[in-house]
Amino acid sequence: RNGARTLDARTTFFYLSTDLDSTLTSDAHGVGSKSSFLATDSTGAYLDGAKSYTVTLPPEVPAAEGWSMVAYDPQTRSMLQAPGTPRPSVVSSSPGLVQNLDGSTTIYFGPEPPAGREGNWIQTVRGKGWFLVLRLGGPLKAWFSGQWRPGEAILNP
Asked: At 16, is the secondary structure helix, strand, or coil?
């Protein structure tokens, strides 16, 4: 900003996604993409592939070009490899994605799918940690202002 280089942000995203796209640190609304990562649950514990979690996106996700959630392997920085799942992701245009009555969207994470919400599920792997990246395509004003924020990872009993 204002001529300063955002080395911390660029370093973090380079490690996570090996990408130095200038839009990662731009404040331009409606263009490029913004990413946010999550590695811990609401209690501060690292995400565990043997446990089940939910993350809720409030209504009106500020993304002109859609959003995605992808689970990654912290050892390889690649998409998490889960048996029987070609991609550990859910995108705003995923077939079978179900919104809640209030317009929010709850994404489920765990080794087993939640009954009736398979389209909102990302499979994790028992015995393996993981982290989550939320990407917004064409992020809008509510993202930059902080008016809209994704929910935390809530551990399900």
From this structure: helix
